[in-house]
Amino acid sequence: MFGSLGQAAKIGDLRTKILFTLLMLLVFRLGAHIPVPGINSQAIQELLGGQLFGFFDIISGGAFKKFSIFAMSITPYINASIIMQLLQVIIPRLEELSKEGEEGRKIIAQYVRYGTVILAFIQAIGMSIALGRYGALENPGLGSYLLIALSLTAGTAFLMWIGEMITERGIGNGISLLIFAGIVSRLPGEFAAVIEQISGGIIGFFNIILFLVIALAIIVAIIAVNEGQRRIPVQYAKRVVGRRLYGGQSTFLPLKVNSAGVIPIIFAMSLMMFPATIASWTNPQSSLNQFLNHYFHFGTAAYNILYAFLIVFFTYFYVAIIFNPLDVAENLKKYGGFIPGIRPGRPTAEYIDKVLSRLTLAGGVFLALIAVLPTIVIAITGVKGIWFGGTALLIVVGVALDTMKQIEAHLLLRNYEGFIKQNRR
């Protein structure tokens, strides 16, 4: 990895891409400290100090609890992208656009941008009204609501632009790198919290060593699962076209263990926030409030069981949307490919679906374990107050691997071009 980075620093165009990416991430971190006008910062700290918003504060790099212009982070864009993927299955016109190549993808991307702004404005209006109800606004009123909503919406739109610029002119996926930067920026604060617990005698060095060993094991497991795939052998029949013989080669169909990525966790987390949100609207002494806080509070057994079940469910749901075994089987049949021992057509689709179902179960169970891991780690090590849990590690490791693959692909392409030029001489 470090060798690839060293080589990348020596190549002019790749070095420019990396520097541009770092510059955009710096702009993101600076914007995370620009407060939204008309907000009582002390009231915000008290209101958003619970565990409910911890993960969203990590994604935004601390901008959520500071309630800066980037408080909503890039989550409206993620939600708009997910909704657009779901609509492509329902609406035939969107499905046709997704298959029209680059032009179709540009139109869908434009729809996602519009959806991002709409969702961000709706979410910002709801947040401003809720803050006014809890007394977190300096001058509650229609003007303050609109000013806060427009500030938050503009911040999200600007982040969306930064992400697209990184993807286009930088290195890596811009949106993923923004989330990555937000999570990594919290590391100094997390380390400071650990040191404070050690100095206060709350935890010992053995607990820290145990925590680091578990964290290292988690990182290794995440890399193994992210890179893990089932390779289904595919054979192409020989075809004679004119005087030439085509086909006959063997290849494989790669099916990833974790095809859904972190999307099922985001879906499940959004649903799990509903009970806590409803509880915050009710009387603290009411039976409904006590029931929701007792059974659906973060860290309880009921919360973790339901959370894990939802993650496995959404893993199957999302994989079913993004991967269609019947289309894959038809494409193999169209180009003369077949799986040895399996008849082309529907039998091939059923076989791929069977293999994919088993992989999806393994991937869903792994995601569920990663999601509930903070509770388990806290119980084992006694290290409390650390939000850098399994989900954050899953995002960080996944983005880091993807970015390094892109850097290595650029290096390979450049070396390949240089090899061709030498042979031409």
Automatic annotation (TrEMBL):
Transmembrane regions: 18-36, 69-91, 111-131, 143-163, 175-195, 201-225, 260-281, 301-323, 359-380, 386-404
Compartment(s): Cell membrane; Membrane
Bilayer topology: Multi-pass membrane protein
CC annotations in GO: plasma membrane
Entry annotated with the keyword Protein transport: yes
Function, in words: The central subunit of the protein translocation channel SecYEG. Consists of two halves formed by TMs 1-5 and 6-10. These two domains form a lateral gate at the front which open onto the bilayer between TMs 2 and 7, and are clamped together by SecE at the back. The channel is closed by both a pore ring composed of hydrophobic SecY resides and a short helix (helix 2A) on the extracellular side of the membrane which forms a plug. The plug probably moves laterally to allow the channel to open. The ring and the pore may move independently.
Subunit structure: Component of the Sec protein translocase complex. Heterotrimer consisting of SecY, SecE and SecG subunits. The heterotrimers can form oligomers, although 1 heterotrimer is thought to be able to translocate proteins. Interacts with the ribosome. Interacts with SecDF, and other proteins may be involved. Interacts with SecA.
Protein name according to UniProt: Protein translocase subunit SecY
Organism placement in taxonomy: Bacteria, Bacillati, Bacillota, Clostridia, Eubacteriales
